[in-house]
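Hi everyone,

Forwarding the result from last night's run.
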Amino acid sequence: MYVIRLADGTLRVPQSLSSDDGRLIGNAYVEISPGDPEYDRWLPESLTEEEMAERRRRWHDDNDELEREFLAFKAERDG
């Protein structure tokens, strides 16, 4: 999950909730506005929604070779 910077400057920061024994209960985003004490900490890690979409597109487009290698490895392993 990534920190998402919205057009108005608000940050959507991922947050996980786990049980006392460490099991994951859920993932969500919390919104942090400019002026919040945590804002400056998360801002350098943030991406705009457009940057996120571009990363997803690049990952999808550039993934073909990796997928071929994985499938070849899996076929060899599975016999």
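The two ends are 36 Å apart (CA to CA).

Cheers,
N.
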